[in-house]
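Intended use. Records like the one below are meant for learning the mapping from a protein sequence to its folded structure. Do not use them to infer anything beyond what is encoded.
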Amino acid sequence: MTFRVKSNEYFVPIEGAIDVDDEIAKLSEELKYTEGFLKSVQGKLKNERFVNNAPEKVVAMEKNKEADALAKIETIKASLASLK
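Structure written out for the chain above:
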């Protein structure tokens, strides 16, 4: 399994170390939660009233949350693909 942390990549041998079905279930649940979170953040960013009335720092923070969620979703999907 490969994990990416910022620009570093770590390889962790998992054969026999974990219950693959359990890990897939956990990652699937985390993916579902993160996709819901992303949808919520994107909803705020699509709301013109929010974007026009919120302080610039708040809007920037929401954009950072969006980018983080997108990156996390990509990582989870890659992890799931490596387990299947």
